[in-house]
Amino acid sequence: MHANSSSNLKLPKNLYLETTSRCNLKCKGCILYRGSWEPQRDLSLKELIMICDQLPELERTALHGIGEPLLNAELPNMIQYLKDRKAYVFFNSNGVLLDEKRQVQLIDSGLDELRISLDAASPAGYKAMRDSDKFDRIVSNVQVFSERIKSLQVFNPKLSLWYLGTRENISELPDFVRLAASLGVTEVYLQRLVYFHDDEGYGLARPQKTLVDSDAATAELIHESHEIAKQSGVQFNASGLSNPLESLQTGFGNPLPWKKCYRPQTLMYITANGNVLPCCISPFATSDYDSIILGNVFDSSLAEIWSGHRYRAFRKKRQTEQPPQCCKGCGTLWSL
After folding, report:
1. Separation CA 287–CA 296 (nearest Å)
2. I need a labelling partner for 119 at 20 to 30 A (CA). Which of 4, 23, 137, 276 fits?
């Protein structure tokens, strides 16, 4: 889509809604380790309906942002509303609160997919990455949920485990794949670290912690994990990438890779406070938060924001050699 036709874009069919900005963990690779950009707040069911009713062709909805979705008591009703709209619904969770009651609620609501962010294969590794002693509890929750889904002979939600790869934890990746297999989870995703370009960073979110341009030993660990996955019947994927080994590469031969990003033309990301951002990566990629706020759903309609000056200017700048700060690492240091 050319920048000059930006104002004529149809409203998106894909929506990311942060159902809460609250979290029960303070992970070292998350922006909350530094401090939240926005006040703590839950999105209400009424507000979600108000937002989604403005998108008549809504097809896919992610109910996560920076906070932990399971903290929002209205989450099951939100999922049910969206399923009544025939949308595909999924969210990321740390799994701490995934007890029996919530497992039943998620199945009954019709949730399509649940992604558990774990980042470790041991209690010690989890403590190092997420500063929490809840590893065993989460693993137990996932195992019970996987068994419940199978015993009920239902297909959803599909479960996957996610691993934020850094130089601190890459040694546990093979065991992470083994863990997934032992839990009956058949999909594993390796994510690349996102960090500020315009600030020294925080926690583990620093350039020296990334897997990009790391050594041959790291490549061997990823290859080993791939082989374990094949033998175990687990799909080993990379978030936004075709091959986990690409997590070690930069650029892929494209001098302006951010120009290929589809998100500003195809989806909206809305925080629990109503701010519209270009994507879910942007709050982690720049320390200039005001620069990525493109409007607020409590002040303007989605149509006004989508075709408004800020969005159009953002799309236009992204097609240049000097894109918005939050886009500079896209397709080079992390995936599109």
Report:
1. 19
2. 276
Residue 20's DSSP bridge partners are 42
Cα–Cα distance between 272 and 16 in angstroms, integer? 11
Mean pLDDT by 10 residues, the chain (336 residues): 61 97 94 91 98 97 97 98 98 98 98 98 97 97 97 96 95 98 97 85 89 88 95 90 65 74 92 96 92 97 97 92 88 70
| Dihedral sign (CA 309, 332, 199, 118) | positive
Could you tell me which residues come within 8 angstroms of residue 257 by beta carbon, excluding any fewer than 6 positions away?
251, 330, 331, 332, 336
pTM of the model: 0.93
* Whether the Cβ atoms of residue 315 and residue 265 lie closer than 8 Å to each other: yes
Of 216, 245, 138, 121, nearest to 172 by C-alpha is 121
